[in-house]
Amino acid sequence: MSQSLQQRPLHNPRSSSNSHRHIPIFNRTGLLSLLSLLLILGVVFLWARTSFSRSSSSSSLSKWRHYTLSEAASFVAKDGTVIVCSVSHPWLPFLNNWLISVSRQRHQEKVLVIAEDYATLFEVNERWPGHAVLVPPAPDSQAAHDFGSQGFFNITSRRAWHLLQILELGYNVMLSDVDMVWLGDPFAYLEGSHDVYFMDDIPAIKPLNHSHDLPHPTRYMGGLTSKLVMKKWIEEIEAQPWFKTAQINDQTAFNWALMKTAGQVDVYLLPQAAFPTGGLYFENKTWVEETKGKHVIIHNNWIVGFERKIKRFRDYGLWLVDDHDNESPLGKL
Ligand SMILES: *[C@@H]1O[C@H](CO)[C@@H](O)[C@H](O)[C@H]1NC(C)=O
Ligand SMILES: *[C@@H]1O[C@H](CO)[C@@H](O)[C@H](O)[C@H]1NC(C)=O
Ligand SMILES: *[C@@H]1O[C@H](CO)[C@@H](O)[C@H](O)[C@H]1NC(C)=O
Fold first, then answer.
1. Is residue 333 part of a domain?
2. Would you tell me which of 34, 107, 174, 241 could form a disulfide with 24, CB atoms 3.0–4.6 Å apart?
3. Number of domains, the chain
4. Any idea which ligand is nearest the CA of 272?
5. Using one digit for the tens of pLDDT, what is the confidence trace for 64-86?
6. DSSP per residue over 226-246, as a string?
7. pTM across the whole model
């Protein structure tokens, strides 16, 4: 079966200088079972779409309260793959911006928005039925804004659970932040058949032919994909004491999981020229010029503040919502 997951770390307007990681997980074994799964899912999709498109007034809002992660994943998954992001209401403009770029690569139908509050759940589903889900209880969004607080940890650790749940349902998952813009199709870069593909967040310049092995095991973020070994990985993660206590955010959790399972899980570091951290892309024009044409995902990180992120995207022509919001499945917000 396949699973793909994409992680997008919590994005708080106030806390994002060094956040971000991406964790896609793919699974390429079991193609046969994947095929049979797709046959079954094809039917589910059809059924799900008809039932969703009928509704859309306020009376339908209560329906979204009961929409489950499992229903949502089966609704959006294509080829066994789901692209996941977590979004709280202040980040809707970034979600819209990112969705425009994802739509240009024709991957928007696989996007599942994990809403961190009911306003986000309702607004996204009103505009784009079935693409948002909220896994209760809704976290306290005020608490979530204090970086390092218990509320913040509660939210970030939730992401890890959601991710694992989707993997356990049998999907490949690509996790994505929404302060990103896709310039190309990242799926084309998932070479070979590794368990996990990820991008790191290290601004130091690597040679173009850098190794795809696990680098120094301290900081990453990344997208990943996985095989059935994922199951093992999940067990390993769940066995970690920090996973239960939720005292650590998901980035730390994934870094830990990658380290703990080094040797058991086949990981692949995506090429830096295609997946640069914002700490490199927005800071070194020489490098950007040298690697022109190779960039696939631009991450607006290594900067603090919602307005500053928007300004930086605008300065680089990446704030697409100004002129292209008609290309987003959400339309004009
Ligand atoms: C965080 O989660 C714990 C355990 O579920 C809960 O007791 C606590 O109230 C939560 N704190 C906040 C601020 O959300
Ligand atoms: C990258 O290229 C350089 C110069 O051609 C070579 O010396 C080095 O071994 C290569 N590194 C890898 C990881 O292939
Ligand atoms: C910027 O990129 C160029 C080209 O790759 C590199 O030679 C230079 O050292 C980089 N500058 C900094 C400050 O990292």
1. no
2. 174
3. 1
4. 3
5. 999 999 999 999 999 999 999 99
6. --TTHHHHHHHHHHSHHHHHT
7. 0.76
Nearest CA to ligand 1 atom 4: 154
Residue type, 89: H
Residue 51 lies in a domain: yes
Structure tokens, 7:
């992680």
CATH number of the domain that residue 295 is part of: 3.90.550
What is the pLDDT at residue 168? Answer: 83
Helix (H, G, I), strand (E, B) or coil at 224: strand
Ligand nearest to the CA of 142: 1
Average of pLDDT values for 10-19? 32
Residue nearest to atom 13 of ligand 3 (CA): 284
Q: Whose CA is nearest to atom 3 of ligand 1?
A: 154
The residue segments making up the domain with residue 75 are 4-327
Q: Which ligand is nearest to the CA of 287?
A: 3
Element (H, E) at 297: strand 297-299
One DSSP character per residue, 252-287 reads HHHHHHHHHTBTTB-EEEPPTTTS--HHHHTT-HHH
332 lies in a domain?
A: no
Higher-pLDDT residue of 295, 165: 295
pLDDT in tens, 148-182: 666 666 666 677 778 778 888 888 889 888 999 99
CB 111 within 8 A of CB 83: yes
Q: Is the CB of 140 under 6 A from ligand 1?
A: yes
207 CB within 6 A, ligand 2: yes
Q: Mind listing the pLDDT tens digit for each residue in 197-217?
A: 888 888 999 999 999 987 654
